[in-house]
Each structure stands twice: as C-alpha cells, then as structure tokens.
Amino acid sequence: MGIELLPQSIRQNYEIYEWKHACAILANDFPKEWQDITSLLSDFYFCKSWITVGGGRKSKVAETIDHYLYKRDWIEKEFLTSVKVDEHVMDSPTHKIDCYKNHVALEIEWNNKDPFFDRDLNNFRLLFDLRAISVGIIITRCDHLQDIFDSLGRGSSYGASTTHMSKLLPRIEGGGGGGCPILVFGITKSLYSEEC
Predict the structure, then answer these.
(1) Please, which pLDDT band fits residue 56 given cuts at 50, 70 and 90?
(2) CA 7 to the chain's CA centroid
(3) How does pLDDT run across 149-174, given as a tens digit for each residue?
(4) What is the pLDDT of residues 177-191, one digit of tens each?
(5) Rounded CA gap, 75 and 98, in Å?
(6) Fold of 3-190
(7) pTM for the predicted model, two decimal places
(8) Which alpha helices (H) appear in 57-186, and where do they start and end?
C-alpha cells in the first residue's frame, strides 16, 4: 500500500510521488496530520487571479496552504541544531519549515528558483537524521501548468528554472533527501478555477 491510501479524488487531482513508504507512515503513525493533509488537498484549488496579479513575498498558493494548516495547529518551525565536539559547540542552522506538526514537515514550492528544492531536501535529510522529523512533504506544481501561465501572458514568470515536478523528482531519486520518507504533490490543471 502506498498512494492507494489517499482518497481517489486526490489521486485524480494531483501528480503524486512517494519515497520510502511516506504514505503508510503518515496514515498509520500520524493519523491526525494525515487527516489535515488529505483535507487540505481535497479542499484546495487555485485561482486565475493568483496568476494574473503580481505576487509579493509569498504566493497566494503558499499563503492559502499556510493559512489552512495554521488553523489546524501547524506552525512555521525553525530548529536550533548544533554539533558538539568535546567542549566546542558549533551551530548548524537549518532552514525554517513552512508548516510543521508532530514530526511532519511540509514545504510549499510554487514558483521559486529550482535550487530551493535542494535546500528543502537537504533540510529534510538533516532533520530526519537528527530524529526531529519523520516525514517530509512537498507541494509544488505540475509541468503542464505552464500552458495556463503562457495563455495568461505570465509564462516568463514561471519559467523552466523554477520549481515544478520535473525539477524535483530527479533530485529525490538521486538521494537528495537521504533516508527521509518524502511525499510530493504536484498541483494539476484540474484544480484551476477561472471564476476567482
């Protein structure tokens, strides 16, 4: 059992990739967090206006996901990590996790430069090795959404060197996340609404 554990509607509306049994771990060991994630994915859609109106620091996609999970007791989380050798302590800072709850880490990469995936995966690897997280989740966009961006005259803002599925999966398969179980959801055209 893997992605079959997800509701069929989610499997139809997202491109899904699983690494190291992430679905089974979430469904069995973290049922509350699993419910939060499946509810989020079932309720999510993205609006035409989110693409046509220029963005600020954070995309409307990321804001919407953050807001949904923060209402369910997820938090943005920075871990204070260090390495101690004898009496010498060296800080080993990690990047903040967008959404965190009970050893489950979730990152949203809608339209960043693709090296952000390297940062996320390295963070997952390190935090998993330190037993601070048990599963990492990334929500990003499918490659075929480029057709929508192009049709709205925004294609150059969502170029080939930005975050999307075909930039992420080779990094995971190449071991970028180490032993950390990872679950990826690619947002598809079926979640697009021209009504808002």
Answers:
(1) low
(2) 18
(3) 989 888 888 877 889 899 999 999 99
(4) 999 999 999 999 999
(5) 7
(6) Restriction Endonuclease (3.40.91)
(7) 0.94
(8) 60-70, 115-129, 146-151, 165-173
Q: Of 194, 53, 196, 182, give the one whose Cα is nearest residue 124.
A: 182
DSSP assignment of the chain equals --GGGS-HHHHHHEEEEEESSHHHHHHHH-HHHHHHHHHHHHH--EEHHHHHSPP-SS-HHHHHHHHHHHTTT-EEE----EEEETTEEEE---PPEEEEETTEEEEE-SSSBTHHHHHHHHHHHHHHHTTS-SEEEEEEE-GGGHHHHHHTT-GGGS-TTBS-HHHHHHHHHTTTTTT--EEEEEE-GGGEES--
- Model pLDDT for residues 101-115, shown as the tens digit of each residue: 999 999 999 988 888
- Tokens describing residue 99: 């959404």
Do the Cβ atoms of 20 and 178 come closer than 8 Å?
Answer: no
Residue indicated by tokens 């803002």: 157
Name 140's bridge partners: 186
The distance of Cα 70 from the centroid of its chain, to the nearest Å, equals 15
3-class secondary-structure state, position 184: strand
Q: Where are the domains of the chain?
A: 3-190
